[in-house]
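debug: dumping io for the single-chain case to check the tokenizer round-trip. Nothing else runs in this session.
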Amino acid sequence: MSLQFYYGRILSLLWCLLILCCADAVLAKKKPPTHPINLNSASAAELQQVPGIGPSTAEKILQMRNSYGAFKSVDDLLAIKGIGPKRLEKMRKYLTVEKAAQDKKASTSAQAAPTAAKSPPAKKVAPKPPAKSNPPPEPSANDDEEP
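debug: decoded output
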């Protein structure tokens, strides 16, 4: 057999190995964090370490935290579109809620006015149909007689 044939085979095998190595890196699941991530202080990159949280969900979490203030519970994430009870249960063991770190300026400033924390919006529930009202009572035989 010719030398070109062997070079072609070796080159093909190298390509296959390269593809397998790249596929392994792409298909590898992300490793969960070793300690729970604090929702009130985590960055987008830290949130993305949690299985079930990608770039889009991390941004939604940060937007909610900026809009409504510190999370009071991990369950507050249910107000975010795309996070339901099943998804939250998978993420719960990797998340925690602790007090947000305060800036030194805000804590030492005598002029800092306390602000009321907004609660996250509740999920919309379909309204119940109105209850049927009872019809007026029918006149009895005694009502027809005059006194």
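debug: round-trip ok. The beta strands are 37-38, 95-96.
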